[in-house]
Specification:
The chain is an alpha/beta fold. Helices cover 43% and strands 18% of the residues. One of its GO terms (biological process) is thiamine diphosphate biosynthetic process.
């Protein structure tokens, strides 16, 4: 393997993809690459990925590295951390097998990750997941004791201007298969006109489909300036102690946001807002809903999500994976039926029309002559 490209560096993959371009070399520090990060990298198609961490540890079945390699993008793992100090943005790097070179200087060596390596780690992960599940349940129960107010409803909900009562609400998180799922339910969106809530980068996901978010919720670390300036109501997610990391960014843009201090994830509070303001139905796209999702997210427990889903479950529909369940294609049988249904009235019109009657009489006579001659 011998590759050259400009380096784009960021220890946070979701920040890097905003600057990364096709043909660049992505330099990241991301253990157990999740599918969302993998999809964002694959969409851009860097020439290679240098990771200072192991892209898959075998702790749990993270499939991001598998997807990247299947897409034909090389990964060099466990490159020396010092690369973030030694290399400036835009520096031309050369990769020879696992060796990283800048000019005449060798920056360090990493391990070229192969599909065989990843499959071995996935096998290990299937064994380790039993212990991870045990630890995960313990942590979730611990968090649940602290976050029970989410279920009991003892929360000060910020005042929204967006009308939600008795309307459908679509909550979009930029999670796995969000594009396919949004495409699959696009006709529903056009017909029902639900309230559109983007959770952080989910606001940009909506705008990719020319849909303007009504509300943007999150800590504002992965949403674009364009989305924040779209005119949507902004609800900054604050921690239970009141600290709101995204508040300064939003206020620096001249936007006056609402602040919602609640434990859990930003998608949890999006559901709480929809529920508290009387939504008749909540449709969720790309949300985190299982253990693997939360292990990938780095959250030790999913108590808040568990409790919130218990609370809103009667009106919640999870659209995640709907694109895999149902492919919008027209069966040949239905095409044949449609053709026949259209042909019958056309044939009748042609038969009774004075202009075409001589033609059909001629055809009929030809048939009679053919039959009599047999």
């Amino acid at each position: 393997m011998h590759l050259k490209g400009k380096a784009k560096l960021d220890k946070r993959t979701k920040n890097l993809v905003n600057r990364l371009r096709k043909g660049d070399i992505a330099v990241i520090s991301h253990d157990d690459i999740d599918e969302v990060a993998a999809n964002s990298l694959i969409d851009i198609r860097p020439i290679a990925i240098l990771n200072t961490m192991p892209s898959i540890t075998g702790r749990y079945p993270a499939r991001g590295a598998y997807k990247i390699l299947k897409a034909g993008i090389p990964i060099i793992d466990e490159v020396p951390e010092k690369i973030f100090e030694d290399v400036k943005e835009g520096t031309l790097l050369e990769i020879k097998d696992g060796t990283v070179i800048s000019g005449s200087h060798i920056l360090g060596e990493g391990k070229v990750l192969t599909l065989a390596d990843v499959n071995q780690k996935l096998d290990e992960a299937n064994e380790n997941i039993k212990q991870e599940l045990d630890d995960f349940v313990d942590n979730t129960l611990e968090y649940a004791k602290k976050e029970k107010d989410v279920l009991l409803g003892n929360l000060e909900v910020p005042p929204l201007n967006t009308h939600i009562l008795n309307r459908h609400v679509l909550i979009v998180v930029r999670g796995s298969s969000y594009k396919e799922d949004l495409r699959a339910i696009y006709s529903y969106i056009q017909e029902q006109k639900p309230v559109l809530i983007g959770v952080d980068g989910g606001a940009d996901a909506l705008m990719e489909f020319n849909l303007k978010p009504d509300i943007i919720v999150g800590d504002m670390d992965s949403v674009s300036d364009e989305a924040l300036q779209s005119g949507a109501e902004i609800v900054v997610h604050a921690y239970a102690n009141g600290k709101a990391p995204g508040l300064e960014r939003v206020e620096s843009m001249g936007i006056e946001p609402l602040v919602f201090a609640v434990p859990g994830t930003s998608e949890d509070i999006a559901m709480i807002l929809a529920w508290e303001y009387g939504a008749s139905l909540i449709v969720a796209v790309g949300t985190h809903s299982n253990m693997i999702d939360f292990l990938e997210k780095g959250r030790k427990g999913m108590a808040s999500t568990f409790l919130v889903r218990l609370k809103v479950g009667s009106i919640l529909i999870d659209a995640r994976g709907v694109s895999q369940l149902y492919k919008q294609s027209l069966h040949s049988k239905y095409l044949a039926q449609l053709f026949m249904a259209a042909l019958i009235p056309i044939t009748i019109l042609l038969w009774v029309s004075p202009a075409t009657q001589p033609f059909f009489r001629l055809i009929w006579l030809q048939i009679k002559i053919l039959v009599n001659s047999i």
